[in-house]
Amino acid sequence: MIMVLSARQRTRWIGLLIGLVVLALFGLAWWPKPITVQTFGAREQPLSVERVDQGYARVRELYLITAPVAGNLSRIELEPGDAVVADTPLTELAPLTSTPLDPRARAMAEAAVGAARAQVQQAEALLGSNRDLRERSEQMFADRLIPERDLTAVRAAERESEARLAAARASLRQAQANAAWDAQGNGRTLALRAPISGVVLKRYHESAGAVAAGTPLLELGDPNDLEIVAEFLSQEAAGINVGARAQIEAWGGPPIPAEVSRVEPLGELKISALGVEERRVRVILALKAPAPKLGHGYQVDARVTVLDLPNVLVVPLEALQRDGADWRVWTVKDDRATPVPVTVGANDGRYRQILSGLLTGQPVLVNPPATLVSGDRVAMGP
């Protein structure tokens, strides 16, 4: 049996259907839309924490040539960059006037020679002790009894002893020159000789003329034996260990591998460019590769690795939010945003270590909106 609707009934049903469609469209328009978000799957990867600060390159062993006594200096023909050979003459000093020998001055000069000779013997003994310690430490490291950083520190101490011995020998030669000068007293000139084979780095005095005792004349060194000096904030230097891996950058050439050889124990007060007082600590780095174009006094950036974690769970820094004194991330479950408290560890400026609260592969929201609340519908962005 087919029911035939009258015109009035058909109009009523059509109006009712139109009303339902309009209501449905209004409902869809006002229905909360899901928030478009970007996600990141928590993953395991290596994490390195680094500290970067400015520094400069310097010759590891500098030798300052000074006038041992007052006299008339000959013109210094050497220029910066000129090579010198150990024990060859650099310049000459002639007496200002002929004066009779002073027994007291002669005795003082001979005493200075004796003191300098004792310093040489002390430096030789210290070097021998550090050399024996280095040999024993190498054997202990080979037997896996000490870590590599301890061996690195012992080797640095041996190199420092070698430098002290070289400085003591130079002081002895200067004291002997003073004694010889006092013993001459007859107008003969005194030749100032190079204590090492190297290069003239700086010429303090060029013209001939009278100079006082102790006047700086030349600075010598080996430009192939460089080290890096960087000044880190004391709170950053506290986390830097001897033997730490490093890299020298921003000097005008490719990055140079390096290693921390010494962290000085003293923090010095410095004023930053903004006028802020800071405590800075000098960190000395040894180059691990030759750098022919790097020179004495060149400015560099020193990047030191203070923590190297081989495989840890991480998320981007943009995925983390403060939750009072704690941290949290937002995860997605059934297309709904859910906050999850987490415990965090180290960060490298891009990623942060997650100690607890997440599983590998669990998606987290990156840059979640500040208005996001638990249970909001979310949709993955393109």
UniProtKB/TrEMBL annotation:
Which InterPro entries does the protein's record reference? Answer: RND_pump_MFP, YknX-like_C
Key word Membrane present? yes
Q: Which UniProt keywords apply?
A: Membrane, Transmembrane, Transmembrane helix
Q: What do the Gene Ontology cellular component annotations say? A: efflux pump complex
One GO MF annotation is: efflux transmembrane transporter activity
| Sequence ranges assigned to domain YknX-like C-terminal permuted SH3-like in this UniProt record | 312-379
> Does Ribonucleoprotein appear among the keywords?
no
Q: Which domain of life is it from?
A: Bacteria
Give TM regions: 12-31
Cross-referenced NCBIfam families, in alphabetical order?
A: RND_mfp
Q: Which family does it belong to?
A: Belongs to the membrane fusion protein (MFP) (TC 8.A.1) family.
Could you identify this protein by its name?
A: Efflux transporter periplasmic adaptor subunit
The lineage is: Bacteria, Pseudomonadati, Pseudomonadota, Gammaproteobacteria, Lysobacterales
